[in-house]
Specification:
The chain is an alpha/beta fold. The chain is built from 11 helices and 8 strands. The chain has an 8-stranded mixed beta sheet, with helices on both faces. It is globular.
């Protein structure tokens, strides 16, 4: 039986695990330092919990963690595989900038692992079908493309390490950038009592944009803490572009504020919800 290791067990990791598990693949993961919610998602996705040393049995290791954890995880896995004869494939599918991807490639290749750079555009794989676009580049891209047989939309690029991450960075800069910018505008409109009119204006003159923003914003609240690191990665990637670093560092602060608000009083989260419900005035607070 094939063995695939996936760390960690977030919505995306569990989605990949479920896709492989339902097709008869053994999926292992490591729960060290993870939450009860992560353990529950792992169990639901039929992920088998092992110690870190247990990932050495895998033919494929998929890294799906917050950007700040990507390099530390790569170093830990590299240390485990360094003494093994198994030439496993390490696929980094995190939202990281190309320079970070290049560093991770150096780390895992030095341990004898093959490396595939990856960038995911879209929601997690769904049970029974449906897959995000998964771009991959670098020396292990063709090998990673093998896993298309599991109904994953893997798009192999004839390009070096960093290219797939660049696709993800630019795609996320537009989608999450729009969401952050719109949230700033919507909060300002709600505080001024102009939320209902702004909503009607967008629905009339920018219907396509509104149809994107509404679900994107409402899904964003519980994920905002993850977007902070992603915005910092984009800021680094776009540092040579005029306004690039400043813009996305600002968006990182927007997402940090929303994440903190979501985890505490929730006043601005409530304002944004009320915007999409069509209220012109801020909700009453106690």
């Amino acid at each position: 039986m094939k063995t695939i290791a996936i760390v960690a067990q977030g919505e995306m990791g569990a989605g990949f695990a479920g896709r492989f598990s339902e097709r008869g693949v053994r999926v292992v993961t490591v729960l060290e330092g993870r939450s009860e919610a992560s353990a529950a998602r792992a169990k639901k996705a039929s992920m088998e919990c092992v110690e870190w040393e247990g990932v050495v049995d895998a033919e494929l290791f998929i890294s799906l963690v917050p950007p700040a954890e990507a390099l530390p995880i790569a170093r830990r896995v590299a240390a485990i595989f360094a003494g093994s004869r198994r030439r496993a494939l390490y696929a980094d599918l995190n939202a990281i900038n190309p320079k970070t991807a290049e560093t991770i490639a150096e780390v895992v290749q030095a341990a004898g692992l093959e490396f595939a750079d990856g960038g995911i555009c879209g929601a997690a794989p769904a049970p029974g079908g449906g897959s995000p676009a998964i771009y991959t580049s670098g020396p292990g891209a063709e090998r990673f493309g093998y896993y298309r047989r599991f109904e994953l939309d893997i798009r192999v690029m004839d390009a070096p390490v960093g290219a797939a991450s660049a696709v993800k960075m630019c795609q996320a800069s537009v989608t999450k950038g729009y969401t952050a910018l719109a949230s700033i505008a919507m909060l300002a409109a709600m505080r001024f009592g102009a939320g209902e009119m702004l909503r009607e204006e967008l629905m009339t003159s920018r219907a396509g944009l509104y149809e994107f923003l509404e679900p994107a914003t409402l899904r964003m609240f519980r994920k905002a803490y993850r977007f902070v690191g992603e915005m910092h990665e984009i800021a680094d990637f776009m540092s040579d572009e005029v306004g690039g670093r400043a813009t996305f560092e600002t968006f990182a602060e927007v997402y940090r504020h929303i994440a903190n608000d979501y985890g505490s009083e929730g006043r601005d989260v409530a304002l944004l919800r009320h915007f999409y419900e069509g209220h012109s005035n801020p909700p009453a607070t106690s």
